[in-house]
Specification:
Helix content: 10-25%
Structural class: alpha/beta
Number of strands: 23
Pfam family, one: SASA
Oligomer: single chain
Domain Sialate O-acetylesterase: 102-359
GO molecular function: sialate O-acetylesterase activity
CATH topology of the largest domain: Rossmann fold
Keywords: Hydrolase
Number of helices: 11
Shape: globular
Number of domains: 3
CATH class of the largest domain: Alpha Beta
Strand content: 25-35%
GO biological process, one term: carbohydrate metabolic process
């Protein structure tokens, strides 16, 4: 059978929609949520030079399609509300009903974002109580493409949060939305574009790689992709999910994004320091909405390769790369080392994940005066064989998990770079460390292991301390580079 490249398919698809009735991308549908307090992008296809009129609430705007049949209108900002009708008129008429205006969040990443409510902790109770008609969810089909697609490949449906629907929602996204809905009393829309087992590089655009010195040579060597060769293989090459599951959503107006991914990149965690910020900057540039909020979940604890400070921990290094990404504006991170499961890469407790992401959002995106982080390393001082470590985000003071008498997770090392477990004592807003095996300590690590679940430092409001290290000694993933 003759093979057809994805580019050829996309061109044929575009050709078919140009000379047709006025049409919108599939992300527009009954029951959708449009973004409040920002100009609302509405776009689509029509006959060349066709006049298209778009109406929402009390406003109407008209645009003329270009010579290739494309058109885009930006409606004036609307306050939260609805339900409304979105009407689009050309040579034919389209009407979308039960349209809400609120906050729209992209939910993306790999399996821990895709993980459904039905497989989460207390699923039966959560499903039975899920009556939030103003939280809406849409799942983007898991598809790949060798070139950016103009529209979603497959059917999509916006769904209201009911016991009949919520079981298939992204659990992290739903519990996040529920917290925001209860705190803000505005409609929340979730666009769930996630796929289990996927790496960060498949979610990033070709142009972003081409413009980055770290990845330019890599992307230049990617061949022209055949549809049959990549079908169902999201990690076969870079950009495949950006092309099929992100690009068709742009420029749908959004509030921001939440992200849970990294497990598939742990083997090259050091390069994630560049790959993950590149994705965030790429999405922000393409949406054209400025530095929109981008919040992510730090990897939970899991046995993975059993890595430790002694053997090297790829998961600890990936967590470090995630922490370093906080240097980008309007980013935030939910620490989850305490709610991982040693023998399961998919922790069932997605409720606390959603709550912690929501605290970040309430602080950063909505300007609420809430504590949103557990203790974060600030500095340390050495006095003889003891170290005093101080922290930021000590709201309510420091505490050991479940008020235990022993504080776990700290290690110290001397110039020999051999880390030993440290006796740790809380003193005010500091932690005092020492080890009989380390006479002259020079470095501290906390929760530096694949499975860091025993690490037990929290602040007074129950948020866990972020893993950290004070040394810059060589990483086990430092020389590992991505190659498709």
């Amino acid at each position: 059978m003759k093979k057809i490249t994805l580019l050829s398919f996309a061109l044929l698809f575009i050709g078919n929609v140009v000379f047709a009735d006025v049409r919108l991308p599939k992300i527009f549908g009954n029951g959708m949520v449009l973004q409040r307090n920002q100009p609302i992008a509405v776009w689509g296809w029509a006959d060349p030079n066709e006049s298209v009129t778009v109406s929402l609430n009390k406003q109407t705007k008209t645009i003329t399609a270009t010579s290739d049949g494309k058109w885009l209108v930006r409606l004036d900002a609307e306050r939260a509300g609805g339900p409304y009708q979105l009407a689009v008129n050309g040579k034919n008429k389209l009407e979308f009903t039960d349209v809400l205006v609120g906050d729209v969040w992209i939910c993306s990443g790999q399996s821990n974002m895709e993980w459904p409510v039905s497989a989460s902790a207390n699923a039966d109770e959560e499903i039975a109580s899920a009556s939030y008609p103003k939280i809406r969810h849409v799942k983007i089909p898991n598809t790949v493409a060798g070139e950016p697609l103009p529209d979603i490949d497959g059917a999509v449906t916006w769904q209201e949060t009911t016991p009949a629907n919520v079981g298939n929602f992204t659990a992290v996204g739903y519990f996040y939305a529920r917290e925001l809905r209860n705190a803000l009393d505005v409609p929340i829309g979730l666009i769930n574009t996630s796929w289990g087992g996927t790496m960060v590089e498949t979610w990033t655009s070709k142009e972003a790689f081409e413009q980055d010195p770290e990845f330019a040579a890599m992307i230049a060597n990617v061949p022209e992709l055949e549809a049959e060769a990549i079908k169902g293989k999201p990690n076969a090459y870079p950009t495949l999910l950006f092309n099929a599951m992100v690009s068709p959503l742009i420029p749908y107006t959004i509030k921001g994004a939440i992200w849970y991914q990294g497990e598939s990149n742990a083997g090259r965690a050091y390069q994630y320091r560049k790959a993950f910020p590149l994705l965030i900057k790429d999405w922000r540039q393409r949406w054209g909405l400025g530095d929109f909020p981008f919040y992510f979940v730090q990897l939970a604890s899991f046995k993975a390769g059993g890595g430790t400070s002694a053997t090297g921990s790829t998961w600890a290094e990936l967590r470090e790369a995630q922490t370093l990404t906080l240097s980008l504006p309007h980013t935030g991170m939910a620490v989850t080392t305490d709610i991982g499961e040693t023998d399961d890469i998919h922790p069932r407790n997605k409720q606390d994940v959603g709550k912690r992401l929501a605290l970040v959002a309430l602080h950063d995106a909505y300007g609420k005066k809430v504590e949103y982080s557990g203790p974060v390393f600030k500095q340390f001082k050495v006095s003889g064989n003891r170290l005093t470590v101080s922290f930021d985000h000590v709201d309510g003071g420091l505490a050991a998990k479940n008020n235990a008498t022993e504080l776990l997770g700290f290690e110290i090392a001397g110039e020999d770079q051999q880390f030993k477990p440290a006796h740790a004592t809380i003193k005010g807003n500091t932690v005092i460390l020492h080890s009989d095996s380390v006479a002259k300590p020079v470095a501290v690590r906390y929760a530096w292991a694949d499975d860091a679940g025993e690490s037990s430092l929290f602040n007074g409001i129950g948020l866990p301390a972020a893993p950290f290290r004070t040394d810059d000694w060589p990483s086990v993933t430092q020389e590992v580079k991505y190659a498709p």
